[in-house]
Write a structure and sequence with these properties.
Layout (H helix, E strand, L loop, with lengths): L9 H6 L4 H11 L8 H14 L33 H14 L9 H14 L6 H13 L11 H11 L8 H12 L7 H6 L2 H5 L3
Helix pairs in contact: 2-3, 4-6, 5-6
């Protein structure tokens, strides 16, 4: 398995598989502010460091502190203590449906809404829940599918596993075993890379 070190290339980093705890420790060693950043954000910031040799200066969006009151759900409320739960989603859906009744949810809309919210806050923008509702409306009305969620390498692998007719009739345990196998070998952690392995490589140990 690849080891994290400051002189590794981006290609070496992408060819390995690292858990969130490992990435947090490594990011701190590189001088990157970790906070409550998600795994995807840490991976992107580490790639920036490996390309440039300089720790990115961006700061993580502060999370809601323990005991802090959540934002009041109203269009004019400034987003400060956001909670990503059913209440918030229901409020934002109602905001959208008041403008376009019966507009249907779109796969990935909440992920991309949260990405937009984090980007706005990290850049110092002041946004309201009306801004969030308008952005959600844009996402739900966009033509075609929303972009694939980049963070979920496991989810993307499993989706592609089931899409391959060669795996018809296989169990979820088979899909997870395939994922564990591609994680253990050098190279991209994609179903395409797994499918390119020789049958003996797919079933053998690391």
């Amino acid at each position: 398995m690849a080891k994290l070190h400051a002189s590794m290339s981006v290609e070496e980093f992408d060819d390995g598989y690292f858990y969130a705890a490992e990435l947090k420790t490594f990011a701190r060693q590189l001088g990157i502010a970790v906070g409550r950043r998600r795994k995807l954000e840490l991976e992107a910031l580490i790639r920036d460091f490996l390309r440039t040799g300089t720790a990115p200066l961006t700061k993580p969006v502060p999370g809601r502190r323990s005991g802090e009151s959540r934002d009041r759900l109203a269009a004019e409320t400034i987003v400060r203590a956001y909670v990503d739960d059913r209440r918030t989603k229901a409020f934002l859906r109602d905001f959208v449906h008041a403008r376009v009744p019966a507009l249907r949810d779109k796969s990935g809309q909440w992920y991309w809404l949260n990405e937009w919210r984090r980007t706005q806050l990290q850049s110092g923008q002041r946004i309201t829940y009306a801004d969030l509702g308008n952005r959600l409306l844009e996402l739900m009305r966009s033509a075609g599918r929303l972009p694939r969620i980049p963070a979920a390498r496991f989810n993307n692998f499993i989706t592609d596993f089931w899409t391959d007719p060669a795996n018809r009739g296989k169990s979820r345990a088979d899909a997870v075993a395939a994922w564990e196998r591609i994680k253990s070998v050098p190279g991209p952690k994609t179903y395409e890379a797994y499918a390119a392995l020789q049958p003996s490589q797919r079933s053998s140990g690391p």
